[in-house]
Amino acid sequence: MKITTLSLFTGSALVLSLLGGCKAGGDDPGLEYAPQMYHSVAYEPLTQIKDETQGSWLSTREDGKGEFFNSNVNNPHGMNMREPVANTVPRNKQGYLPHRLTQADLALAAAIANPVAASEQVLKDGEKLYLQYCNACHGKGGEGDGKAGQVIGGVANLKGGAYVNLPEGHIFHVITKGKGRMGAHGSQIPAESRWKIVHYVKQVIQGQAVAAADSTATDSTAVAQVNPAN
Ligand code: HEC
Fold it and tell me: How far is the centre of ligand 1, averaged over its atoms, from the C-alpha of 203 (Å)?
């Protein structure tokens, strides 16, 4: 009887102390079961373990370094993510600058030229997109008489005097950020498609052929206000 109590006591003390070793806290993740599942061997942009010996007890790496070491020796300070070159702005795959203007920056936006060159195909795409996204309110001819437009009322007549001479960048900005009672469409329509709609509105609905301007020159005004380093 006594022996059973004693072994029970020592047994539970042992189990408790073993379990205690698994306790996590602060920067210590505790004992990990199958650590290879938690620690990425690939470079991670936001974590950096510089100690080459970390996780060496577990390592199967061919370079002999610890399993958890994940710094990039080819970059300054072993960083995994390269910092962008000072005073530069990354462009997207199509070569466009990001549109970082706020809704109130209409005047700045107006200076941006359409980076998409107009063509038959672009106008065709523009028509399809216009019918998808704008027709319900602005109507086929752009006169503000779409089915939903008739209900909500006050939809701009794109052929009307106040709107017919709107710069392309202005229209792009209104589609992207919305204006007044019109909602923003930036999250639904990719930038290139928005510029195609702009061509369609200008050339077909408003009947004005606009020469495709050199995008790089005017385009940058849009971000001139934004310092990427901040
Ligand atoms: C849900 C209805 C609705 C949809 C969809 C819509 N608009 Fe509008 N749009 C409006 C309303 C309402 C106004 C008037 C906004 C105001 O001044 O309050 C307006 C205004 C405008 C203006 C004039 C902006 C100015 O400077 O006053 C332009 C240009 C425009 N829309 C283009 C578009 C294009 C292009 C699309 C398709 C991508 C589109 N809209 C989709 C309702 C809509």
Answer: 17
CA-to-CA separations, 156 to 64, 128, 132, 223, in angstroms, rounded: 67, 20, 17, 28
Q: Which of 44-53, 102-111, 216-225 has the lowest mean pLDDT?
A: 216-225
**pLDDT band per the 50, 70, 90 thresholds, residue 18:** low
Ligand 1 pocket, residue 164 CB under 6 Å: no
**What is the distance in A from the centroid of ligand 1 to the CA of 192?**
18
What are the structure tokens assigned to 176, written together?
């992207």
pLDDT band at 221 (very low <50, low <70, confident <90, very high): very low
What are the structure tokens assigned to 91, written together?
Answer: 């462009």
- 197 in contact with ligand 1, CB cutoff 6 A: yes
For residue range 96-125, what is the model confidence (pLDDT) as tens digits?
888 889 999 999 999 999 999 999 999 999
Query: Is 137:144 a contact under the CB 8 Å cutoff?
Result: yes
Q: Is the CB of 196 under 6 A from ligand 1?
A: no
Q: How far is Cα of residue 13 from the mean position of the Cα atoms in its chain?
A: 53
Q: Tokens 């199967």 label which residue?
A: 60
CB distance 156 to ligand 1 below 6 Å: yes
Beta bridge mates, 179: 182
Query: What pTM did the predictor assign?
Result: 0.69
Taking the centre of ligand 1 as the mean of its atom positions, its distance from the CA of residue 39, in whole angstroms, is 49
Domain ranges of the chain: 33-82, 106-224
User: What is the second-level CATH architecture of the domain 106-224?
Assistant: Orthogonal Bundle (1.10)
Residue 25 φ/ψ, nearest 5 degrees: 175, 140
